[in-house]
Amino acid sequence: MKRDLISMLDVREDLDGIIDLGISLKKRKKSGGSIGFLGGKTLGMIFEKPSTRTRVSFEVAMTLLGGHAIFLSTNDMQLGRGESIEDTALVLSRYVDIIMYRAYNHDSMLELAKYSSVPVINGLDDREHPCQVIADLMTIKEYKGDLRGLNFVYIGDGNNNMAHSYLLGCGIAGMNIRIVSPKGFWPDKYYVEEAKKFGVRVEIVDDMRDATKDADVVATDTWVSMGDEEEKERRIRAFQGYTVNMEVMSRAKKDAIFMHCLPAYYGYEVTREVAHGPQSVIFDEAENRLWAQAAIMVRLSGIR
Ligand code: CP
Ligand code: NVA
């Protein structure tokens, strides 16, 4: 049976194992060792939306693992001019060993996974961004050690892919999560209910005054996700007062870290002072996309 990574719930059984594998691949490679576990394998990467980190980190990860990655933009694929997702999945499954897909629509993601006979990895859709959240949890583990019992605070658009995957990821990892968003931008109830099933504290609030109280980790994301561009002005108005600035950070624990999946828009969801300040780990997060995804690909290939 092939195994996909569409939602954080797909790694509920082995999140710890993937994070630890990511950390060990990173150490091994940096100390001069070989990590060529996927020699001769090919990754196909389909992009409907732009990307810097996802594209480069997957491609480099596959190279380091001894395999090869192919970048496929839907602008240049027959998929972009009407070929069905079903036929695309059936054809690509004859050529490549893993498919990574960045899609506008979660239903397209599910359809590709349904018809593909090789593992499909969600490289972001409108519901979730699991690869980013696995890399983020790996980063938190590197900084804080044990994840269990930590307090994670996410400020900003609570109804986007990052907020949803954070809810599930924190639940699985045993971390309490508080989402601080204006009403109207609260998470889809499904993710809140799923997170609660793991027995962690889940709070959804709109009040910024105590937003970062007791926080070990403070995270945010853009107020205008890819696909939300038409709502840009309305969103910027709605999110006034939700910027993560030095004052917001000063109300968290002294050793709190700041996270952002990037790209960041300084002066909106976060100030540059915070993002490039001493508590920020945003570039470790970006680097860890590479190691976490290497671990994910090794795992889905059933090798380790
Ligand atoms: N964080 C992230 O997924 O970045 P890209 O859009 O650049 O891939
Ligand atoms: N929420 C953002 C994440 C970008 C990596 C978006 O979907 O655009």
- Along the chain, the helix and strand elements come as HEHEHEHEHEHEHEEHHEHH
| CATH 4th-level superfamily of the largest domain | Aspartate/ornithine carbamoyltransferase
CATH architecture verdict of the largest domain = 3-Layer(aba) Sandwich
Hetero groups in this structure are:
phosphoric acid mono(formamide)ester, norvaline
- Work out the helicity level: 25-40%
Number of strands: 9
If helices are DSSP runs of H or I spanning 4 or more residues, what is the number of helices?
Answer: 11
Question: How much beta, percentage-wise?
Answer: 5-15%
Structural class: alpha/beta
Distance between termini? Answer: 16 Å
Q: What is the CA-based Rg, rounded?
A: 19 Å
CATH topology of the largest domain: Rossmann fold
- The gross shape turns out to be globular
CATH class of the largest domain: Alpha Beta
- How many domains make up the coordinates? 2
Low-confidence spans: none
- Describe the main β-sheet briefly: 5 strands, parallel
With strands numbered from the N-terminus, the spatial order across the biggest sheet is 7-6-5-8-9
- Average pLDDT reading: 98
